[in-house]
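HUMAN: Now follow token order:
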Amino acid sequence: MNGTNKHISILGAGESGVGAALLAQAKGWNVFVSDFGKIKDKFQQELTNNNIQFEQEQHSEDIILTSDVIVKSPGIPHKAPIIQKAVAKGIKIISEIEFAGYYTQAKMICITGSNGKTTTTLLTHHLLRKAGLNVGLAGNIGQSLAKQVIADEFEYYVLELSSFQLDDMYDFKADIAILLNITPDHLDRYDYKMENYTASKFRILQNMTANDWFIYNADDPIITEHLALTNTKAQLAPFSLKEEQTQGAHANEQQITITIKNQFTMSIHDLALKGKHNTQNSLASGIAGRILDIRKETIRESLSDFKNVEHRLEFVAKVHGIEFINDSKATNVNSTWYALESMEKPTVWIVGGVDKGNNYEELAELVQDKVKAIICLGVDNSKIIEAFQGKIETIVEAKSAMEAVGFGYQLAKKDEIVLLSPACASFDLFESYEDRGNQFKDAVRAL
């Protein structure tokens, strides 16, 4: 895409917006960056240092609506007035990933799904790096893809893609696409219609050819139903925890088996990531590795020595035989469901915060199975108490991470677990889920 003397506006000046601005400038575009909110100091500095024109806390329509192209931050909804006006004028609106894709020939391994994206992206990146491939990490994670494409040193990129990013992608193509699962999330952006959200996830298949691969969860009914109605040229590699796959992967209680190019097996007990959902993540990454002809030894090693992302089922410490686990990144019921499902010992569960319309009913069965006591960590815990009163004998309330950890230490015994998996956002008592996780870890270490 030739940018010479063409005008590009970039809406949103976070990691992806600033990355897109730097790439656009490098490719000869006239660049204008506009953010309706406040721009973080470090991003302002970067724009200033590179002589890129920007504004904050407003959108200057006279400049934006005369653009040839608009790169939109994934956080800006299509209903935003400035976007509606741009659409009415027929201006091309794309995502940073789409824009970056115009300027690189690198192979793209793209990962989406409602849960497990970050873990699978990091695991796949770890595997490719271990195999000695020249690979970058981008999308919803790490440095902006557009920024990395300026130097364009990588032959492969592993990208974590949200449905919001996929919505503004048109010509971009994945060489390997991974779809982990589809559960209701962000439905407010999709007119509260599940089929709209599903269609958005399936955009990951756009432009794929017979040389490309689609790795997907065969146990997810929404995916299999939609796939049956989808016409794709890509080769299919399903993974399952229920049935064997002739081309793909499956797992049982003992081992995982990947059947791509020839058979690979590995004991399930050697996987670094525990829990059924993590077995799915490992299967997806392993398939991608085999498609890329990575040696079996390398795959085995990578799947067994991977260290997961901070605040996601992160082991903190063992104190007098009690294991403390930080899953502060679980900000919805679905993420917490996965966390509880992977607990193999009696668990004291720390839950609560700002509720995004949670239905705790979905956790009822798991909680009765796994949880011996509940510690509520939020300003208003009435909904949680109401949901589990009478089902769980001990429910207490804490107003700080320190107090919650103290209760956990009293309520758990040797060979039991204290799990922080809040199922809620954090901003009633904390600055962010990272702040909540860090305070939790500090309190555990102070025991």
Notes: The first strand starts at residue 7 and ends at 11. The chain has a mean pLDDT of 93.
